[in-house]
Automatic annotation (TrEMBL):
This is LuxR C-terminal-related transcriptional regulator. It comes from Roseibium porphyridii. The keyword DNA-binding applies. The keyword Electron transport does not apply. CDD domains: LuxR_C_like. The lineage of its organism: Bacteria, Pseudomonadati, Pseudomonadota, Alphaproteobacteria, Hyphomicrobiales. Gene3D superfamilies: Transcription factor LuxR-like, autoinducer-binding domain, Winged helix-like DNA-binding domain superfamily/Winged helix DNA-binding domain. SUPFAM superfamilies: C-terminal effector domain of the bipartite response regulators, Pheromone-binding domain of LuxR-like quorum-sensing transcription factors. Coiled coil: none annotated.
């Protein structure tokens, strides 16, 4: 219970998808995992690189994964809807998945080439959901060792993965919220170096109204400060300098 409480406190207090992601990855690694993959795939659409996140420790595998376009054939997303919400993955568990094709097995063997031989998949979507969403916690552990981890901590890992899934999704939706014309104008003037009083004078509004617009922009963009809101608005294309 203590681990769950600590994890929930850390992730739920995160103010950006990246912050929630980093806290989640650190938590998973504390159980002996090499890293994690989080992704989604519409059943009728081939996913793209933007649909799948890799933790930083998996850089080499990530490069090979995208070079080979393994996301088009990753068994995790193809078969997950027909499997339990939590199941074992990796080369050590091939005998448990007799339905896999040669193409599927090739994806798994390429992961093995990067030292990733076992994992725990955690499906976040319902069986009938048109979008398959989930985590794959990957490791170099032997079959007995990762089975022991799953036996002891499997429920905890699934609960924490679900917390992170919902938190990251909520923050992403928040950051995708559209800005009003006034909010964009305030941010653009902020980018020019204007302070509150000058922004108010330029826009012919009260300073308190400027503060309100910028506060709303921060909330929509998941930013703590005006500067963070401005940076996020620029990076995400909400405003153009």
């Amino acid at each position: 219970m203590k681990k769950l409480e600590q994890f929930a406190d850390q992730v739920l207090s995160a103010d950006s998808p990246q912050a929630a992601w980093e806290k989640t990855i650190g938590f998973f690694e504390s159980f002996g995992f090499k890293g994690a993959v989080y992704g989604q795939r519409r059943r009728d659409v081939v996913p793209t690189a933007n649909d799948i996140w890799f933790s930083d420790q998996l850089t080499e595998w990530k490069a090979a994964y995208f070079k080979q376009k393994d996301y088009e054939r990753d068994p995790l997303f193809i078969y997950a809807p027909n499997l339990p919400s939590q199941f074992m993955t990796g080369i050590h568990f091939l005998p448990d998945h007799a339905y896999l094709t040669e193409e599927d097995i090739a994806v798994i063997r390429r992961a093995e080439e990067h030292g990733l031989t076992s994992g725990i998949a955690l499906r976040m979507s319902r069986e009938d959901d048109p979008v398959v969403k989930g985590w794959n916690l990957v490791s170099d552990l032997s079959r007995p060792d990762i089975e022991a981890v799953n036996e002891q901590f499997g429920t905890l890992l699934h609960i924490c993965a679900a917390i992170a899934h919902h938190k990251i999704g909520r923050l992403e939706n928040l950051s995708q919220a559209s800005l009003s014309n006034r909010e964009r104008e305030c941010l653009l003037l902020l980018a020019k170096g204007f302070r509150t009083a000058r922004i108010a004078e330029h826009m012919s509004i009260q300073a308190v109204t400027v503060d309100l617009h910028l506060r709303n922009a921060r909330a929509k963009l998941g930013a703590r400060t005006r500067e963070q809101a401005l940076a996020t608005a620029i990076v995400t294309g909400r405003i153009h300098l």
